[in-house]
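Fold this complex.
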Amino acid sequence: MATPTLAEQIAKQLRHEILLGELAPGASVGEREKAQQMGVSRTPMREAIRLLAQEGLLVLRPSMSPIVADPTLKQVEDDLTLIRALEVLSGELACKFASADEIEAIRGLQNRMVEHAAANDMLAFFETDMGFHRAIAQASKNERLDEMHGQLLSRLWRVRYLSARQAWDRSRVLTQHNLIVEGLEARDADLVKQETDSHILHIQRNIQGHFRKDCPSLKTMERQA
Amino acid sequence: MATPTLAEQIAKQLRHEILLGELAPGASVGEREKAQQMGVSRTPMREAIRLLAQEGLLVLRPSMSPIVADPTLKQVEDDLTLIRALEVLSGELACKFASADEIEAIRGLQNRMVEHAAANDMLAFFETDMGFHRAIAQASKNERLDEMHGQLLSRLWRVRYLSARQAWDRSRVLTQHNLIVEGLEARDADLVKQETDSHILHIQRNIQGHFRKDCPSLKTMERQA
DNA sequence: AGGCAATTTTTGGTATACCAAAATGATAAG
DNA sequence: CTTATCATTTTGGTATACCAAAAATTGCCT
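Structure:
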């Protein structure tokens, strides 16, 4: 049974559709409809929906179809506050426990980001960025921490992707990442913590700007009315 | 549909059995067997099992019955490291955002703990202790943070309960809690952070001692061999 | 025309049946 | 006595059928 379970495949597919916007925020995802549409039975579809709900990408409602999450600015900010704390902790632990190889690999990711920025490859740049943060969480050698961080990151994937489009500050990202990597290489926990904190705070500001521009999610406001 | 779903009731029951030790760590919980035993079908039992697995109380194994989790010291320490960070953050945010009523309620919990300690009511003392920490997380007004903190806390419930039996230091707990409450009342984030950090560190030491005494879980060692 | 009520439809929740893969145990060969 | 292999059994995974509750619709009554 080395092959991933069907529910997991469905979850992966759904996650993909949600994060890429093929399934718009607020869209209903009835387990019957979606199951038939994807040619599977309700059981694994149900399980996949639960998985994504747990990840925060879907919201379950009593006696109604689950809908694609459309987080408010407050919710995103809360998530970012949380992820900030987790990444600061990750950085601290990684300074203690990361192997030289792992730090080298992180440096490698940073280098790849430089290349992608030079090549103006937005998507690759972004995905490597996510990988960079994931790698640090893994290097903390704290499995739960890594787990929760990954969950939070996937929850924020879409909004970070959208806000990162206005990439006036790719160079800032690279500079900050560079400081973080240097901190890790020097095993300087204070430096890593400080720079990580600052880095996430900047991301938070970017996202706030993004929300203001796009007008606080029309659909959300309508639903609240 | 105000009544909790059957799967949730099963999960609640199972959680109860696990935390109280009626289901020993390492015990197998096949969905067929347990479902028949509880007089329900496999479907909600399956869902309940997934819920508890997500909470970390059960561990899923490919093509084998799930078993009751029997965390290693390292895993518990990782969880505590994480919860320490989350509670420090909670305390900081609570200083900013908690209402006066909420802080008063937290003070009330502290007073109840004093009474329970005086009455030598272990269980009530412990449960109020848990409520104390939950209340601070809630007062942070960060829903995700509260959510994750609750999850982590329930995961650690059993080991904390067991280690808290050797309650030579109930007075220490009360003293530390008192400092935390005073910090909240004074909205002194630094004090709250510092005392929370210290408090959890002490708990961590207690639990380490508990593990050493009880000999690092025989069953775990056998299974690893 | 507007609101209310009965009915219809859709929803998730649950039970059950079936399947394929993997663990287990028995058995035979070395 | 050990080991390899084959049959059996048990497991979780999946599909399907049924149910009850709640949402949505229709049409009636005011």
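Residues 218-225 of chain A have pLDDT under 50 and may be disordered.
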